[in-house]
Amino acid sequence: MTRQTEPSAGQHMSAEVASQPKIFADLVARRGEIAEIAAQVSARRPRFALLAARGSSDHAALYAKYLIEVLLQLPAGLVSPSTTTLYGAQPDLTDVLLISVSQSGGSPDLLEVTESARARGALTVAVTNTPDSPLNNAAELSVDVGAGPELAVAATKTYSATLLALYLLIDAVRGGSGEHAAALGELAQQTLDESAAAVQEAVQRFRFVDRVLTTGRGYSSATAAEAALKLAETSYLSARSYSGADLLHGPVAAVDAETGVLAVTSAGKGGAAMSEVLDVIHSRGADVFAVGSAASRVSAALRIPVAETAEEVAPVLEVLPIQRLALGLSLARGGDPDSPRGLNKVTKTR
């Protein structure tokens, strides 16, 4: 009789992090079908964009908000689902684009928001990892993230693939060719390989820290927010995310030598804007850990390299070593990131 081997802690999350280069390459190869959805969006000429999401998908939506405002020059906002689900708000959404972002496509509040928005005139697009989900059926158009089943509770491959799917969609809406995303599969593998040693060093430096602050500017604000969530849900750290623009306005008072600071600094305007902020943080004695293609250009005790790309796609890569950090810290602190305490894969809210 063959004895069934118990799964080792973190094996699902580890495998899913490692699978991302191929997922990116496959998604880029499907750019044509995403461009067909984008053509329908362009034809409707939306005057405003709204994004609805929860959890990690909310951070992907924040990234999409930057893309829409910068690349499409359209005003964009993040929906508060409870204005619809709890308060029954019914604004006129004629000529508005609503993008609902959900890995599972099963959250009741996002489903209600999408159904309500469509009934009130919005062009609705679902971006999910579950093509036959209720959310996809409710939306007029849908984009399949194509990351495959995710077994670990913490989202890794579905998060990064959602970023890439959103980029390919929005880039195609503006008439782009997806050229900045073309090599992301190869660059993702390069990033995972070249950052491995620095991530292990960061695990050893951060394993006894109880308070972590994450920060970034521009497109990388989404990565900083996702980093705080990953560290909180897998390692049970007290982690808080701030925009680099807000950090010096008050939160810096809580930074001292006992604070771990994870700063996302990729090449471009957002990363350049972090330089002065990190000079101040570093001078306060905080253990600053810089992640990104511009990490070597800022004040930090430890730097984790990321392959350089156009700034608008940097978040797809810069989150990879952060996922590995969350995995390593969870294991070093005696946890199992595949099943964090008190969490389920799908959270249903209204």
UniProtKB/TrEMBL annotation:
SUPFAM superfamilies linked: SIS domain (SSF53697)
Protein name: Glucosamine--fructose-6-phosphate aminotransferase (Isomerizing)
Domain of life: Bacteria
Source organism of the structure: Kutzneria kofuensis
Domain (SIS): residue spans on this chain: 37-179, 202-340
Annotated InterPro entries: GlmS/AgaS_SIS, GlmS/FrlB_SIS, SIS_dom, SIS_dom_sf
GO biological process, one term: carbohydrate derivative metabolic process
Any GO molecular function: glutamine-fructose-6-phosphate transaminase (isomerizing) activity
Keyword Transferase on entry: yes
Keywords (A to Z) from UniProt: Aminotransferase, Repeat, Transferase
This enzyme's EC code(s): 2.6.1.16
This protein's record includes keyword Transferase: yes
Xref: Pfam families: SIS (PF01380)
